[in-house]
Amino acid sequence: MATDQNKLVKEITSRDVDFAKWYTDVCKKAELMDYSDTKGFIIYRPYGYAIWEGIQQYMDKEFKRTGHENVYMPMLIPESLFMKEAEHVEGFAPETAIVTIGGKEELTERLIIRPTSEVLFCDHYSKTVSSYRDLPKKYNQWCSVVRWEKTTRPFLRGSEFLWQEGHTIHATEAEARKEVLDMLEIYKNTGRDLLAIPFVTGKKTDKEKFAGAEETYTIEALMHDGKALQSGTTHYFGTGFAKAFNITFQDKDGVLKNVHQTSWGLSTRLIGAIIMVHGDDSGLVLPPYVAPVQLMIVPIQAHKEGILEKAYELRDRLQKQGIRVKVDDSDKSPGWKFSEAEMKGIPIRLEIGPRDLEQNQCVLALRYNGEKLRVSLSDLDSELPKLFERIHQAMYDAAMENVLKNTRPALSFDEFVDIINNQGGYVKMMWCGDRACEDLIKEKTSATARCIPFEQEHLTDVCPVCGKKAKHEVYFAKAY
After folding, report:
1. What pLDDT digit, counting tens, does each position of 147-182 carry?
2. Measuring CA to CA, which residue among 275, 271, 272, 297 is closest to residue 285?
3. 306 in a structural domain
């Protein structure tokens, strides 16, 4: 039994030996994805896709609760339409995939496979909005996009990925700015309440903002290896796109005005964040509220009378309570089943054998810390929700502790370089606002500005890079 279990675990590289290899091992061995024959285009296997479905279902409720409607826009964008917003085009041009042939004939106009859908929404809005009575439009779509990446990694950076993209237009700047911050709050709360991930939130610098946006806001997560992951962004566009696409409306005062526009997006990168924030050397560790299987029942000596029957009875009973339960009734050894459940990060494993059945109890093994509990079968319905809550909070607290422990101030540029190169994590530094200092930091350390946090600390009066008067506190880190 121990041999089977150890064999499966040994197939994963240790996190601290080779973090990148560990990450790929977990993606593959936990059956989250597989590689397709086209570079950068992965196959989402059922277990990986189920995690995305859990995120999607949770967020879709939040979007609809706040008055957003789902739509679907075409995959292909005429090149002439795509070129209408210059700054946007410049930002995405290196990443676009282009269709030039339809059937056997060369197209008269090339078609861009959407890298994002701003121009499609703008074109649609320009044709359907004429009065203040038509506003606001608060749309969201769930789809895939294609960005021709040179370097790819499952879930984190791919030539195709799944995401949601919200696109809204408003009569006033105040309404649009509120939308941007409201959606950022939903993103942040999704991390806290579903994924057990604490996000650092704030505004992007002009260098890091979205192409075509006036302002970009972000949620940033810190991985186990000390790198940051941009996990979602919201954007205030002002009237830039509206002017380029002539999206106008007659206001209450009879004056023709341009709409104020936003967009916001979050993708399957979150699956990568879950893996890298919570995973360990045995595989995935899934927070219970996003786990496709919250409880795996493993019958011990399943051939003995009543064991399998009781396992199925418990499954059916708990499923009626809304708990996501499976029974591992395969012919694999118990040790292999235990290891497989650990590999897949299932929050709780329930073990039941002949002696447990006699005593009307079971053993619950908690994935996140290895703790084992003996629980009466009669108490499962009430105990499991409490355990899920406890596990989720403990995982969130551990992730928060990692953020706090690995967020360090730098008062000089030498100190900044030393922290980035030798310790990693976030470095808090005062900044003059000059892009040249950002560029120098990236050149010397590969670190980038992750965000200007909403809650500002005053660390020093000057920018450590150039010595000029400081304007903002900024979080820097190496990032995925």
Report:
1. 998 889 999 999 999 999 999 999 999 999 999 999
2. 275
3. yes
Q: How far is 182 from 383, CA to CA, in rounded Å? A: 35
Q: Model confidence over 370-384: pLDDT tens digits?
A: 999 999 999 999 999
Answer yes or no: do 61 and 139 share one domain: yes
CA distance 471 to 457: 11
Those residues whose C-beta lies under 8 Å from the C-beta of residue 174, and which sit 6 or more positions away, are: none
Domain carrying residue 38: 18-76+118-278
Give, rounded to a whole angstrom, the gap between the first and last alpha carbons of the chain.
39
Supply the CATH number for residue 448's domain. Answer: 3.30.110.30
In this prediction, residue 84 carries a pLDDT of 86
Do you find a cis peptide bond into 136, omega within 30 degrees of 0?
yes
Please choose, from the candidates 7, 259, 285, 221, the residue with its C-alpha nearest in 3D space to the C-alpha of residue 125. Answer: 259
- Which is it for the CA torsion 440, 219, 39, 80, positive or negative? negative
- Say how many domains are in the chain: 3
Q: Is 222 exposed, middle or buried (0-12, 13-18, 19+ CB in 10 A)?
A: buried
Q: Is 205 inside a domain boundary?
A: yes
Position 325 in a domain: yes
Tell me the whole-structure pTM to 2 decimals: 0.95
Is 231 inside a domain boundary? Answer: yes
| Same domain (yes/no): 335, 470 | no
**269 and 302 housed in the same domain:** no
pLDDT at 1: 39
Q: Hey, CA dihedral for 321, 59, 152, 428, is it positive or negative? A: negative
What is the tens place of the pLDDT at every residue in 226-237?
A: 999 999 999 999
Where is average pLDDT lowest: 8-12, 90-94, 284-288, 323-327?
8-12
Identify the CA nearest to 85 among candidates 207, 210, 204: 210
Cα(184)–Cα(188) distance, integer angstroms: 6
Closest CA to 233 of 222, 217, 220, 212: 217
Backbone angles phi, psi at 253, to 5 degrees: -85, 5
Residues 58 and 169 in one domain: yes
Among 383, 415, 442, which residue terminates a domain? 383
Q: How many CA atoms lie within 13 A of 228 on its CB side?
A: 27
Domain boundary among 278, 309, 344: 278
Model confidence over 60-86: pLDDT tens digits? 999 999 999 999 999 999 999 998 877
Mean pLDDT across 197-216: 96
- At 389-441, the pLDDT tens digits run 999 999 999 999 999 999 999 999 999 999 999 999 999 999 999 999 999 99
